[in-house]
Request: fold
Amino acid sequence: MARALDAWWHELGDPDQFVVVDAGAGCGTLARDVLAAEPSCSPALHYVLVERSDSLRAAHADNVALEPARVALGRGPTATSLQELPAGPLTGVVLANELLDNLGFRLLERGAQGWSEVRVGETDGRLVEVLVAASDDLGAEADGLVSDPPDGARVSLQHAARAWLRDALGVLGRGRVVVFDYADTTPAMARRPWRQWLRTFRAHGPGQLARVRAVTADRPQAEFLRAFGIDELAVGARAAWESRAHVGDLEALKHRSRVTEVEALTDPAGLGAFRVLEWVLPVR
Ligand SMILES: C[S@@+](CC[C@H](N)C(=O)[O-])C[C@H]1O[C@@H](n2cnc3c(N)ncnc32)[C@H](O)[C@@H]1O
Reply:
């Protein structure tokens, strides 16, 4: 990620202020690792961790040295922790790793009589699914997303994810929004048995996000990471591990775990199949 940030900073012409917003930052481990990698953009870098959970936000200070929210020239890297997205327009990047799969969505099911909305009810103290006739608006929206849905197909309506993308694009004057997540198109999801994707309440539609603004790039995570040289990092780590394996110290273990991390992050049957969606501003 640090390499990607450098590439995007150069693409913007090495601005003196480069704001990286980490939306849904969790406890701040990505921030810690990016700052530890000392990217070339560091003097310009203002890293903003945005996290809604109070307890996770409280952990930010354990992972990075925090400063009050302010941006000063050439003083980077600085890090700030916020509850909400900052106000724009900023020059930089809004990142979101597995944020969108935390946002709620409405769920519609296709039946012989048209679309029903799947809601949650209660029977004997247990939460159960209840199907109610979908409103005309929701039905029309689902029809606009999937033509000819098979009977029993389920479609998610990603209103919250779209609203988030609108807000994230609104933060930036110049730069890009980059989202890492499970993703598939709505028609493809409607044709898959819904238990495959709904069981975990994950899976988002890049098609629905593209309705907010056309996606500039959409590629698997493995391809994205390779474009920024993850294989080279793995080769270096493997060589360092092999030369220190006999010592077996912490440094050696760090290199070995980098090798395993790279394998996991690029596994085409696992994390490597995550999608990386990018929206570049201003639109070219
Ligand atoms: C699955 S975690 C991902 C954490 C981190 N990005 C990572 O990759 O480890 C999603 C995080 O987003 C936070 N979150 C959910 N909705 C949010 C919102 N609207 N604004 C900011 N954070 C949010 C959750 O509290 C949670 O920490």
Remarks:
- The pocket of S-adenosylmethionine is lined by residues 23-26, 50-53, 56, 97-99, 102 (CB under 6 Å).
- The chain has three domains: 2-103+158-226+268-281, 106-157, 231-264.
- The chain has a mean pLDDT of 92.
- Residues 150 and 191 are 7 Å apart (CA to CA).
